[in-house]
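Sequence only, no structure available. Ideas?
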Amino acid sequence: MGICTDIMHDFVLQEIHRLYSSVDGWKITQKKKGIGYDTIVIAGRMNQGHREIVRILVTFKKEVTLDMIDELIRPEPVFDGTTPRYDYAVIVPANADTSQLPKDLKIYIMRSFAFDGKELVWVKKPVMETS
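Reply:
I predicted one. Tokens follow.
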């Protein structure tokens, strides 16, 4: 897939920026996760004197399993003296199987990608016809 993965992640990052807007104080950073195309995106902000951190697993796999979120829920040390409030989420293509994930985990569905059977497809905006 080569360079396509960068473009795929760019589309997903746009979707994450819509969910966690910089207008609301969110700062987004990206962290590579192990091997493959999975990535952990970290959204953080200060809110009323507390640091809020949302760790988001971005995956393009058809089936998302519990072992895929191990690294997601592992807290990272904070060196600025604050006690962060952690939240966790997963963003997956439409029609992906997330049935094995805990019910309290936030699951966001990508607008840009979906599974059509076993194939991952790019979901394009419909073209408006002019008469």
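The first strand starts at residue 27 and ends at 32.
Hope that gets you unstuck.
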